[in-house]
Structures are given as C-alpha cells and as structure tokens.
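User: For documentation purposes, I need each entry recorded in a consistent format: the amino acid sequence on its own, followed directly by the corresponding structure tokens. There are two entries in this batch. Please keep commentary to a minimum and don't merge the entries.

Assistant: Recorded as requested. Entry 1:
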Amino acid sequence: MIKEQKFPIITNYRWYDISNLSETDSNQLQDDFNFTPDMISYISDRHERPHYDYDTYTHINLLVYDVPIWPTQVIKHFTAHPVTFLISEKNIFTFHTESTSYVFDQFNDLMMRRELAKAQDVTELLMKFLLFSSQYFQRAVTQLDDERNLLDKKLSGDINNRDLVELSNIEKSLVYLSSSIQTNLMMLHSLKVSELDFTKRACERLDDVLIESNQSAEMVKISQQVTQTLSATSNNMMNNNLNDTMKFLTVWSLVLTIPTILTGFYGMNVSLPVGHSSSDWIIIMVLTIILMVWLVILMKRHHFF
C-alpha cells in the first residue's frame, strides 16, 4: 500500500511510505514515478544486502539499509532485514515489510513528524531516517548484553542445556548484527561519492550516522569477545565437571573390584586357604575392607582424586 505521509508544517519534499509492496503498487510506481523493473526487483528482494545504486536514466537514487529484527518464537536469535529508500527529485520513498515496520511506526507521533519536517531538503530527511534506524542496533546489543550477564551469573552454579542454547543464540545474534553493521558502513561510505546532492547539514547528519554505526560496530565487537570468553569458560567448566565425574566413577570401579575378586576367589568349589571354619567370612570381610581402604589412600596420595 502506497501512502503519502503528511507533515505538520509545509516542506519542499514529499514522503511516500510503502508497506508490503504488492503487484498493484509496483505498477503504480512504474507508471506514476518512472520506476524501472530493476529497482522494483531490488525493493522486492528481502535478502538484498545494503548498497547504494543510481539509475542514470531516471536519476533515481536507491539505498538498501539493514535493520535488526528481534527474536520470535520461530527464530530465537536476532537477524537483520533490509529497508529500502528511493529518492526521486524531491520525493523520498520508504519500503518496508511487516517485520521492519517498527522503524517507521515511531514517526506516527506528531512530535516525531515535526522533528522530521525540520530537514531542509530530502537528503537531510534521508539522513534522519538512517540515524534513527542505526540506533536500533545499539538497543539490540544492549539487550543481548543483559541476557548474557544473566547467563554469566549461572556460571557459579550448574549450566544446563537450555542455558547453552541461549548462549548459542546470543552468539548467532552477534554474528548477524556484526555482518549487517559492516555492510551498512560500506554503503554509508559510498554515499560520500554518490550522485546525491548533499547540503552541509545533510553531510553533518551523514557523519552522525557514521559515528553511530561505528559505535554499534565497536559494541558488537566487544560483546562478541565477552561472549566468546563466557562460552569458552562454560565449556571448560563442563569439561572439568565431566573429568570429575569420570574420576569418581573410575575410583569406585577400582575400589569395588577388590570385593568382587575376593568373593569370586573364595566362591570357587575347591580347597582354599582360610576356608575351613564358619567364621572365616569375617576374616575375608576384614581383608576386603583393609584392601579397599589401602587402595583409596594410595590413589589419594598420587592425587588421582
């Protein structure tokens, strides 16, 4: 659906917001605004990577920018989906799906519309959109840090499989966010040599977006390092617990071998020493206990456990 968004004050540009682009919308864009089929295909591709493109025939600027997608019941980790911006003369078109609509929902507020309308031209408006979109990455990383800190507190206790799955989801989320931020940065740097006619204020806004994205990249990098350390520590603790369990089982399997040997030996139906009295079992039991205690002491002296 194509919707022209209104500003509370008069501006020299127009904003068209398109949600869940349909075939009817595509035909209208091609007929009314001279969009090319290639541009429509870029917009329709939900897996399109962030980049900048310029059509020399229609003089339309296209920008694809990734934004984070919060975990759902189906996908338990953060991902990233593209939002697309098209600038044609003094018109700006924003394209998004249901999953990325939250980026533009915040502009339904009158105060936010008034803030957007302060932009001098369409390039400055574009930079405002990108600045607000970039800030969501920091929110996502902050949320992941909070989740990781909760898992970190469990290190002193028992870590179960559910905790390990959550830690794995955090690692996956950081990989997705890091990849998206890096490609966003590449696209932003390409704008400095693009066909867009930036005003001075728009250039300053672009620098703000770059600073914001670089900060997000650093946050993700630090978070990845901490998460990897936590993951390595968790693995070491699990391995250590497994070693302790194996030592315990090994020690007691050796200790319990002694009564098995003695009872098996004196269970043979042949003439054996100390086997001629009804009270000889007491001697055998005492001998068994002595040998078991001796074996435990011997293994402890050799730091076996």
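Entry 2:
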Amino acid sequence: MLKKENILKILTWLLWGSLCSGVLVLLVSAVNTENSVTCARIEITIDGKSNLKMVTADEITASLWPERSGIKPVGKKITDFNLFGLEQQIEKNPWVAEADVFFDHHRVMHINVSQRTPIARLFLPDGASVYLDAHYTTLPLKTTNVLKLPVFTNFTLLKRPLNATDSATMNRIVGLSRYIRADEFWMAQVETVQIQYDGSFELSMQLGDETVLLGKRGDWDNLLPKLKQTYEKFALDQSWGKYRQIDLQFKDQVICRKSSGLQMKIDTTNSDSVIQ
C-alpha cells in the first residue's frame, strides 16, 4: 500500500514538472518571438477640433527620427522602442496637446496626436505676437499659416501659474474671442480688442472711428447685442460716425459721446434716447 502511494506521488511530481517545463518553454519561445518582431510601418493621425492644421505628419516624423540621424524605424525591433519616450518627444512641440504611441497586432506603430486649436491672436506691447488656445496656452506663430482670428492688443505674457486676476483676464479673452468668431458680423466689424492697463477692454471697429468701451465686464451675451442695437439706431438716424465713444459698461444703457462733450443715452430696454 505504501509503495502505491509513493508511486502516485512520484507520478504527480513528474506531471507537474512536465507542465512547468512546458510553460517555461512557451514563455521562452514567446519572449524570443517578441524580441524578433519588427515594425512594419507607421501611421500618424492628427486630430484637432477645427479645420486648422497646425501640426503635420512630416513634423512629427522629423522630430522623432531626423534624417541626419540615419535611424529608420521601419524594420527596427518593436522591443527597442521606448513608446513613452516617443510620446514625450512629440509633446515638446508646443502645438501638440497630447500624443499616444502604440503598436497593434499587425506590427503597425500608431501615433495619435491631438493638436492645440488657436482661438485668438495676441499682440504684445513690443509688437511681437502669439496665438492663444481655449486652455490659456500661448502658442508661437507659424509663418506658413494665415489665420483669421480675433486680435487682442497690449497683451502682456503672464507668469505661471496664473493668479486670480490673470485667470479672469484670460477667461474674458477666450469668452470674447469665441463670441466674435461665432458671428460673421462681429468677425467683419471688430478690428481689434485693446487690453488696457487696468484690465478693461476696448473695441476698435472696422467701420467708424468710435471706440467701444466694454470695461471689465464679461457678459458678452448682454453687451454685444446692446452694441448691435445701437448700430441699428445709428442706421435709422443716419448718425454713423458722429460719436467718438460708445460706452457699454452700464446696465440696460448705452452712452454715446461726441468730441464736443454732448452725449446720447440709449435705454436698451425700450430704445428711447436722451441727448444731454
């Protein structure tokens, strides 16, 4: 009886030993196979929230494998690639918001890039300019692209992280830019948005020499319709060009000032006006 038990134990050990050896052989084989698999090709996909193309596939390729380096990724072992390192290198491009690099089961390297989308052009006091995206990121100009965007002047580059005042200013820039871009009338009519030293905004218009005072307000759905209403009144009264300043800072009221000091107050709730 004891001999039978010993024989069963020995057979069990042999069985487990065989299984472990088989698994080990499979693992070694899999590792060797993986180490010998090479990159078949590269596919680059650039995704943006607009039709603007601020990053190209050629730029991405050149940043990873410059021609002068002589490195050709196709045919290289997949295990030799540092995918995280490639993502970090791509994201050094200021126009890249995020990069994702991976291989599929066909040995294809996929490079998915999300580009930043500019929504405004900002001119600095020294005349230099940058673009701005919706996340308050300033972006360098690209000479190959001519972008039709709202223009803000007298912008000062801000230190990071932003303080509460700077965040509020950036939020107003983004909000006003979005409002202008959403309406062809305002895109055609607004020439520049001037940022004053106290943080208030003023508009310079394409038609007319008047300056439009927005103050530090940011309720564009209230302010800009008041201005359009004022222009409609100018058209009816044939008073285009008679005022040097249109002030929108007051609730339910627009004040139009002449160089002589005379002013007209327009009640935007009923379109009544008073000359003073």
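Summary note for entry 2:
The first strand starts at residue 41 and ends at 47.
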